[in-house]
Amino acid sequence: MSEFYRLIKSKNEPQMIPFLDIFGGVYLFAALYYHCSSLSTSVTKYIFIPYVAYIMLTFIIQLYAKRPDPIKCWAYSLLGQFYIALPFALLNFIAFPGTYTLYTPWLLMSFFIFIWTNDTGAFLVGITIGHHRLFERISPKKSWEGFVGGLIFSLIAAWVFSLFYDNFSLIQWLGLSLTISISSTFGDLCESLLKRTIHIKDSGHILPGHGGLLDRFDSVLLAAPAAYIYIQIFG
Which principal EC class is assigned to this enzyme (predicted)? Predict the structure, then answer.
């Protein structure tokens, strides 16, 4: 979230209060973690009150800030919540997939492994036989061949998971891997669109040779909501 708001600042857009927005995003994650993992309902029903107060404060602050374009300040503050904080917070529903269930590490682990195998397969197949551009306007290096290769690698990983974890059937595992692989590709493309709009190459420099944390976790930002929907409906 820090990288995201810094990117917005680099575009010389109206300034928000990044510290407050980052706090709101971190609190949303922590609140959903407590909500999903706690067996006590007496506290969880109050846990989201501070976050609702943060949303209200985000709007009220602009009354006193006297900035020329408060609408953009509201929009960028809330975009960080919906684009970054909410997807990561939804991972709690994958780690605790049922009502008052125990921590389920194998399901959360599969989420990230499907993303990694998809990225690895797409890269290996893309550099080997990739010729037809997937979305040249946004990401010139991605190819349809790489996209299909990533799906195949992810399906193989799903088959391996089905051998060790029978909580899901093979069909459910395959469906989950396809859902995560396709949505993670869209997540990657959306972050590429964000950077292309701002005219930058990397979201940060915290990882030499790899860019920023937002570059490393861009796939999660759409894969997490998609996986949450899939698990709630089919899991």
Answer: transferase
Range(s) of the domain holding residue 62: 1-99
Q: What pTM was computed for the model?
A: 0.89
pLDDT in tens, 106-150: 999 999 999 999 999 999 998 888 788 888 888 878 889 999 999
Q: What's the total number of domains in the chain?
A: 2
Q: What is the mean pLDDT of the chain?
A: 89
Domain boundary among 34, 67, 99: 99
DSSP string spanning the chain?
-HHHHHHHHHTTPPP--HHHHHHHHHHHHHHHHHHHH-S-HHHHTTTTHHHHHHHHHHHHHHHHH--S-HHHHHHHHHHHIIIIIHHHHHHHHHHS-STTPPP-HHHHHHHHHHHHHHHHHHHHHHHHH--SEEETTTEEEEEHHHHHHHHHHHHHHHHHHHHH-TTS-HHHHHHHHHHHHHHHHHHHHHHHHHHHHHT-S-S-SSBTTTB-HHHHSTTHHHHHHHHHHHHHHH-
